[in-house]
UniProtKB/TrEMBL annotation, chain A:
The chain crosses the membrane at residues 31-53, 65-83, 114-134, 141-161, 190-209, 241-262, 291-309, 321-338. PANTHER family: ABC TRANSPORTER PERMEASE PROTEIN YPHD-RELATED-RELATED (PTHR32196), AUTOINDUCER 2 IMPORT SYSTEM PERMEASE PROTEIN LSRD (PTHR32196:SF71). Residues 343-371 are annotated as: Disordered. It comes from Nocardioides astragali. Residues 350-362 have a biased composition (Pro residues). The lineage of its organism: Bacteria, Bacillati, Actinomycetota, Actinomycetes, Propionibacteriales. Keywords: Cell inner membrane, Cell membrane, Membrane, Transmembrane, Transmembrane helix, Transport. It is a multi-pass membrane protein. This is Autoinducer 2 import system permease protein LsrD. It comes from the Bacteria.
TrEMBL record, chain B:
The keyword Signal applies. Residues 26-60 are annotated as: Disordered. Residues 45-60 have a biased composition (Acidic residues). This is Substrate-binding domain-containing protein. It comes from the Bacteria. It is found in: Cell envelope. It comes from Nocardioides astragali.
Length: 371, 416
């Protein structure tokens, strides 16, 4: 998949290995990279779920599944920006919970407050990201600690606002964003709004990662010193990554209020689910490598896994252990694919020998050009 | 250093760690935001419980207690039915003539937490009751310490009250059963009145132990309702808050036993009251096949469960929730076949009133069992009307209608 879009440098005279051969060959090569393997993993899990429960494969059910996975997929894409820049954002779940509670408390039954509320929530998301980013880049506090602090601070705020218990849901018109959809769509029956929002976010993310900002972001994650020497403002690039992450969490929060309703536990654990999804998607912790859509695919793989366990009726008491083991296994396999993908081929695959000697040959789904 | 991170082994190692972290954090609910009706007892931290931690649901089942609570559901309660918070089942009484004392007294309240809507509602009611007793000159003041769902904090709170609180009486709502036993005994050793309510401890030293009938009664009421309204072989989804809390485990232990005996297929899930999780679980189950019933061990999140049926386009299930307003309203709106079991919220009034009796030298029940009657569909309209304007997190049987500040204090949900 990633191979289709790989035209890293059009001005280059020689063809990079990733963009040679037939479409099939390129797909195959892409699939053995971590960024591509996650799509295979998601496909395998999807087949397993449909095998366990055939009705899951029907278009109306499938599109609903995509709709309910949209929040975590969007969160994973937000987390991707931060991780690919070499940082972490642990505050995501707390941002979601804060936004959910704000939606419940501020909107309430007042329909006229829907638009101001969305603006307010996005502003709060941007500010949280800005604070995270500036503390990390300018104050040089490790992002792990900064965002952990933000997480605790926001968690305390939610507890203060709610006392730790649920408040009422906001008006239905606001909840429609996460709950409703376009009716009477052929084949699908209904096209949930979250699916549309997810598509828009995905397309925007791909575009963003192919823009100068995206390239600089990956360069900053790969080697901030080099990126700085090359003339980019690393601090501002990374800060924007944090803002994108918090904004993604805000969008996920808006969708979750609609999908589920207001409860302080909404969003709990989302930061780790998002990080797991990003890692499953073959994005390297520490930054510099990975494809944004692979992060979203990682989120889908995770949700498919959870659904698979639901369908298998795994005993509730040890369901968590099963999930944990499978995730470890999946990440280990993805990492294995990474080392396989890195290994230079034994027979010179490239017709132009000049491309082969490069010690780290470009691989689809792992290099900057692939985004 | 940054280069090192790019090496596969390190990346794998950190990924694995995160994977583990992710599952432990994302799939389990932190105890601090549970919405069980009772204080979530993080019993894993309690030193005394040790090997009893890994009890399966069968081990939570206690035939003797089950039988007692089964009987108590139809027992006759002494006292005025208009004031259910003062009713009790006839039994052993504590003679308090030696504790009788004149003048306004200082009460010290060690509270487990107010981290769920049930406890918040009760806490509001208790403070309004306090206002009355302060005006009457029975209580001078009540000093409260909130343990925030933490056993150790609550033990420290009780010890502080004993040594420095200058207390005339103790009110304790224990966070967990075994862990708080010693601290409650230390309070009893002071010779002052000790009132324990909601969840119990493993000692009967308290002057009175106030609680509704209990978890088994809840399980019996709800399971029998579902069994009566479903066919044999029907499927019921059981949505549970979290494992390890005795009152919640007892609710499920009783229900599971009855479902098994009556051929109802029940699958249980832990949700942490997270509506996202509830919705996902129900949707997956609906994908798999028909779901005829939903059983909940606490009503928080009941609305999300019903919405999952709506969004899927499936028929409404037969369902048991709780007397939380959000559930009652959704229940009426959808017209589904349902029952609202009650874990009597009005019990939060009783401890202060018990102190009034104790200082007056009146005898109080050693174990003060309060009525616990579910709200049926026929009674629903009355409770909805009586609680009009109350927030979604309010509990219909809060029992504070005759207290000052009604209804504004509860409507505004002014948490003291």
């Amino acid at each position: 998949m990633s191979a289709i879009t790989s035209t890293p440098d059009r001005r280059d005279t020689h063809v990079l290995p990733a963009s040679e051969g037939s479409l099939f060959q390129r797909l195959l090569r892409g699939a053995v990279t971590p960024g591509g393997a996650v799509f295979l993993l998601a496909a395998v899990l999807f087949i397993a779920v449909v095998w366990a429960n055939p009705s899951f494969g029907e278009p109306p059910q499938l599109i609903r599944f995509i709709g309910r996975t949209a929040p975590i997929a969007i969160a994973a894409m937000g987390q991707y920006y931060v991780i690919v820049a070499g940082e972490f954002d642990l505050s995501m779940g707390a941002v979601i919970a804060t936004q959910v509670v704000i939606a419940g408390n501020y909107i309430g039954d007042d329909e006229s407050r829907v638009l101001p509320a969305i603006a307010l929530m996005l502003a709060i998301g941007a500010v949280v990201g800005l604070v995270n980013g500036l503390c990390t880049t300018l104050l040089k506090v490790p992002s792990f600690i900064v965002t952990l602090g933000t997480m605790l601070a926001l968690g305390g705020l939610v507890r203060y606002l709610t006392g730790g218990a649920a408040t009422g849901n906001p008006v239905d018109s606001f909840r429609e964003i996460g709950r409703g959809g376009l009716q009477d769509v052929p084949v699908l029956d209904v096209l949930p709004y979250p699916v549309i929002i997810l598509t828009v976010v995905a397309v925007a993310s791909v575009w963003l990662m192919r823009s100068p900002f995206g390239r600089t972001l990956i360069a900053s994650g790969d080697n901030p010193d080099a990126a700085g020497l090359a003339g980019s403002h690393v601090w501002w690039v990374k800060t924007r990554a944090f803002m994108l992450s918090s904004l993604a969490a805000t969008v996920a929060g808006i969708l979750l209020v609609g999908y589920a309703g207001v409860h302080p536990s909404v969003g709990a654990g989302y930061e780790f689910q998002a990080i797991t999804a990003v890692v499953l998607g073959g994005v390297v912790l520490g930054g510099g490598r990975g494809w944004v859509l692979s992060a979203a695919a990682g989120a889908f793989a995770l949700e498919l896994l959870f659904s698979f366990l639901n369908f298998q009726e795994v005993e509730s008491t040890w369901r968590n252990s099963v999930q944990g083991l499978i995730i470890i296994l999946a990440v280990a396999l993805a990492a294995r694919a990474w080392t396989l993908g890195r290994r230079p081929s034994r027979t010179p695959a490239s017709p132009t020998p000049s491309a082969a000697p490069s010690p780290t040959p470009a691989r689809p789904g792992t290099e900057t050009g692939e985004n | 250093m940054r280069r090192n991170i790019h090496r596969a082994p390190l990346a794998v190692a950190s990924a694995l760690l995160l994977g583990v972290f992710a599952t432990s954090c994302s799939t389990e609910d932190p105890t601090d935001d549970t919405s069980a009706s009772e204080a979530p007892a993080d019993s894993a931290e309690s030193p005394e419980e040790g090997s009893e931690e890994t009890e399966s649901s069968e081990e939570w089942f206690d035939q003797e207690v089950y039988d007692t609570q089964y009987e108590q559901r139809s027992a006759t309660f002494e006292g005025n039915p208009e004031q259910p918070w003062l009713q009790y089942i006839d039994g052993e009484m504590t003679d308090t003539s030696k504790l009788a004392s004149k003048g306004a007294k200082k009460a010290c309240f060690a509270n487990a937490s107010i981290s769920n809507p049930w406890r918040q509602t009760g806490w509001i009611t208790m403070n309004q009751q306090l206002e009355v007793l302060v005006d009457e000159g029975v209580i001078s003041e009540m000093e409260t310490r909130d343990a925030g769902d933490d056993d150790n904090t609550q033990i420290a709170d009780i010890d502080y009250f004993i040594s420095e609180g200058n207390c005339d009486a103790f009110i304790i709502s224990p966070n967990s059963t075994a862990a708080l036993t010693d601290a409650v005994e230390r309070a009893c050793d002071t010779g002052k009145p000790v009132v324990v309510f909601d969840r119990g401890v493993e000692t009967d030293c308290a002057t009175t132990f106030i609680h509704p009938i209990g978890g088994f009664a809840w399980g019996i009421d709800t399971a029998e309702y579902l069994i009566d309204n479903l066919e044999e072989g029907d499927k019921v989804i059981a949505l549970r808050i979290l494992p390890g809390v005795d009152v919640l485990e007892q609710r499920w232990a009783a229900a599971e036993k009855l479902f098994e005996e009556n051929g109802i297929e029940a699958v249980d899930y832990f949700t942490g009251a997270d509506p996202t999780k509830i919705k996902t679980i129900i949707t997956d189950e609906l994908n798999k096949g028909e779901v005829a019933g939903v059983w909940m061990d606490a009503g928080d999140g009941g609305v999300a469960a019903i919405e999952a049926f709506e969004d899927f386009g499936a028929d409404y299930p037969v369902m048991t929730g709780e007397d939380e307003m959000s559930f009652l309203r959704k229940w009426e709106e959808t017209g589904l076949t349902g029952l609202a079991p009650v874990y009597s919220n009005f019990q939060w009034r009783t401890p202060l009133l018990a102190l009034e009796k104790i200082f007056a030298g009146e005898e109080v029940p050693k174990e003060w069992v309060l009525p616990q009657t579910p709200i049926t569909e026929d009674e629903r309209a009355d409770y909805l009307e009586a609680n009009e304007g109350m927030p979604d997190g309010h509990y219909a049987k809060f029992g504070g209608e005759d207290l000052p500040g009604y209804p504004e204090v509860w409507q505004e949900r002014q948490i003291p």
